[in-house]
Amino acid sequence: MGQPSPLLVKLSRQLFSDAPNQAAFVAALTTPPVYPPALVWTQPRPHPVPFTVEGALPWQPLCVDRVAPGQRPGQHSLHQQGFYYCLDTASVFLAAVLGAIPRPVDWVLDLCAAPGGKSLLAWQMLQPSQLWCNETIRKRVKILIANLKRCGATHSQVFNLDPQVFADHIPQAVPVVIVDAPCSGQSLLAKGEPALGCFHPVTLRKNVSRQRRILAQAAQVVAGGGYLAYMTCTFSPAENEQMVSWLLKQFPQFEAVEVPLLQDYASALATFPCYRLWPQSGLGAGGFTVLLRSRSETVRQSSAAFVATYGQGIYGERPEA
After folding, report:
1. N or C: which end of the chain has fewer CB within 10 A?
2. Domain containing 147 — which CATH number?
3. Does the pLDDT at position 138 exceed 60?
């Protein structure tokens, strides 16, 4: 490998105060390790599981197994039959904040849902009566529907709408809203995938602007006493801790919630509870996650008006109003 990008080196110095962590972070993005894949079981596990499984981590949901490196669960017949969904362990880490949400939960809205991993994790972890999966980018909707259908999430609803539509028509209605935000995608490098321009200031400014818009719309949808889970697969503080700081100032009814199982991953870059997985951990490509709760006491709206206007979306059975 050649010399790392000066912008990557600069970012490493923003994130870590010590040289060893700076070097380890840069190395994980320039010489990616092999991370064990994770499986989200969407049907009962077969006995025995036909893979070598790693030991469960404290924050690992019960519906997830981590598979030892060198195996190819995506090519197994159980995958085609919809028994599980394959994803990076870092994605499981990001969704682990959902485990701190009290159950039962009757309605979850995933605003940026494709390709569907977080939606399926929410479906298994929270078991909501209604699971709404929205994807703004039309060309990504097909894979979202395919994954939900293959894994048996036939009661979910898929929408192809701008998040502003939800803010306008079901304000303060949904008890759990998930924003797995579009971002600069810096952790893709830790997977050995391209992420052109992911450290460039122009890219960061563009993503920050988009994230603020989506988060502001999401915040308006959250019911009083409800939760907003925000997560990214990038490392830039501007898209993570600073983004949440902005949200808390714009919407002071929200507070960041501690997730005890993630305490060892608490970010040192914020004064409120939020969590990071670093690519040099060996667990996954990395990312950022936070769980926010609305302290508002507003009366919750129903989904009836929205369903009357937009129907049942473009996939799934009609939800109850």
Report:
1. N
2. 3.40.50.150
3. yes
